[in-house]
């Protein structure tokens, strides 16, 4: 078998060996959503916020209550002829109240609606973080698997070179130095194989933990993938989009709006309140009433007005506190805008650099293969020594490992750019799945 085809053959063998259990990135994402504790926490927080928003709505709605009492009286009257007697009282009251003017309640209601939008932004960010974390773990496994495959291929090639050096030494066409150099390189590659195998095991455990499954087998990339179309638009267009869509930035904006509403609530503590109240009560007596012999029914409707005159400076200082917190929220928003813009530019440039690196490594792979072929031919005709061939082999396989990692990093870079711009969604994983082996 030629050295040129050996790595590809080993890679294909590894791919076909795991075809039955190989899983795509989009499939594993659905499993991760139901297992990842961080995402489930964000989803529970969202559901709790929806319930809290309904509580805020209740502040503008009427309230009603039903109350009752039961009492027994034993009366010992020494001043008239009635003497001692016992009687009972039964009372039942239905009361209701409707807020007419409560500015604090209105501000709390608006805050509740803002909290829903905040929880939605938080859930969006958690979902995007899960997509990136899962993709990172997924491609870490693929990169580790590619590295192990290339190390095994290199070990096989070095073993072949070692056998050739031994044969040449036995027939007297090579020195013992060639054999020892090949043996040293074989021992080194063996150690690299052990390390690569351990790294693959660790990366697989991390992926298994992310999706909550055992022995997950990711699908590798297709042999020929065109990545030129991954990046589109200018850096400023991505930054502008992130300013509109980024989830962290949306949270900062909502936090500022909540701070403004908190000022309104604090100011409302100095304003009057007005409620519409009503009640209907029934009182029944057993054995009569010592003051009145009649049962009573009473209906009442009215207005309840309250105006705070002095709160011990608590309300005034609460207003000062909320104004300072609003200033803090504005500063946090400004910092978030800068961080998001910087993160977007970093992701854009990182993806651009990754695409250039892939092209350079593809050219380097072709050059390294040509250098190896030339050194092998030179070794056969005596113008190159064994160490030249071994160095060329190492350079070729190192280039192949770097190229495999660079391809994976480019796909991750695309996801991170989408995350920074705030447009990353689960459907983007399907686009990557289309680049994987079927």
Characterise the protein shown here:
The protein is α+β, with helices and mostly antiparallel strands. It folds into two domains: 6-59 and 103-270 and 313-433, Outer membrane efflux proteins (OEP), CATH 1.20.1600.10; 62-101 and 272-307, Outer membrane efflux proteins (OEP), CATH 2.20.200. It has ten helices and six strands. The protein has a four-stranded antiparallel β-sheet, with no helix packed on it. The two termini are 27 Å apart. The relative contact order is 0.15.
Structural class: alpha+beta
The first-to-last residue Cα distance is: 27 Å
Mean pLDDT: 86
Q: What would you call the shape?
A: elongated
Radius of gyration: 38 Å
**Biggest beta sheet attributes:** 4 strands, antiparallel
In DSSP terms, counting alpha (H) and pi (I) runs of 4 or more, how many helices? 10
Poorly predicted segments:
1-20
Number of domains: 2
CATH architecture designation of the largest domain: Up-down Bundle
With strands numbered from the N-terminus, the spatial order across the biggest sheet is 2-3-5-6
CATH topological fold name of the largest domain? Outer membrane efflux proteins (OEP)
Short description:
The protein has 438 residues and is an alpha+beta fold. Helices cover 67% and strands 14% of the residues.
């Amino acid at each position: 078998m030629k050295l040129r085809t050996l790595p590809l053959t080993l890679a294909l063998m590894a791919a076909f060996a795991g075809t039955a259990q190989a899983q795509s990135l989009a499939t594993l994402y659905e499993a991760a959503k139901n297992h990842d504790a961080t995402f489930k926490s964000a989803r529970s927080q969202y559901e709790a916020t929806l319930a809290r928003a309904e509580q805020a709505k209740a502040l503008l709605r009427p309230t009603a209550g039903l109350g009752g009492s039961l009492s027994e009286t034993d009366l010992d009257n020494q001043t008239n002829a009635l003497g001692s007697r016992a009687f009972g009282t039964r009372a039942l009251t239905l009361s209701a109240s409707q807020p007419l003017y409560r500015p604090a309640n209105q501000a709390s209601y608006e805050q509740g609606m803002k909290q829903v939008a905040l929880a939605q932004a938080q859930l969006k960010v958690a979902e995007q973080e899960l997509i990136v974390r899962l993709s990172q773990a997924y491609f870490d496994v693929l990169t580790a698997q590619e590295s192990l495959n290339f190390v095994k291929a290199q070990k096989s090639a070095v073993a072949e070179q070692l056998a050739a050096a031994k044969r040449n030494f036995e027939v007297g066409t090579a020195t013992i130095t060639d054999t020892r150099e090949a043996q040293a390189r074989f021992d080194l590659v063996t150690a690299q194989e052990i390390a690569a195998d351990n790294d693959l095991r660790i990366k697989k455990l991390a992926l298994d933990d992310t999706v909550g499954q055992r022995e997950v087998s990711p699908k590798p990339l297709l042999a020929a993938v065109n990545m030129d179309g991954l990046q589109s638009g200018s850096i400023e267009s991505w930054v502008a989009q992130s300013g509109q869509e980024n989830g962290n930035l949306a949270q900062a904006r909502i936090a500022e709006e909540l701070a403004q509403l908190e000022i309104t609530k604090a100011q409302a503590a100095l304003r009057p309140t007005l409620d519409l109240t009503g009640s209907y009560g029934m009182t029944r007596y057993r054995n009569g009433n010592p003051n009145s012999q009649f049962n009573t029914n009473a209906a009442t409707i009215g207005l309840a007005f309250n105006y705070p005159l002095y709160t011990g400076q608590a309300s005034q200082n609460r207003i000062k506190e909320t104004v300072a917190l609003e200033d803090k929220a504005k500063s946090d928003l400004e910092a978030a805008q800068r961080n998001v813009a910087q993160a977007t530019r970093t992701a854009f440039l990182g993806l651009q650099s990754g695409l250039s690196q892939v092209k350079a490594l593809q050219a380097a792979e072709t050059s390294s293969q040509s250098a190896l072929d030339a050194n092998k031919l030179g070794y056969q005709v005596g113008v190159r020594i064994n160490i030249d061939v071994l160095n060329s082999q190492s350079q070729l396989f190192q280039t192949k490992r770097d190229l495999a990692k660079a391809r994976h990093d480019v796909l991750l870079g695309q996801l991170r750019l989408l995350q920074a711009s705030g447009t990353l969604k689960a459907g983007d994983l399907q686009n990557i799945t289309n680049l994987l082996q079927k």
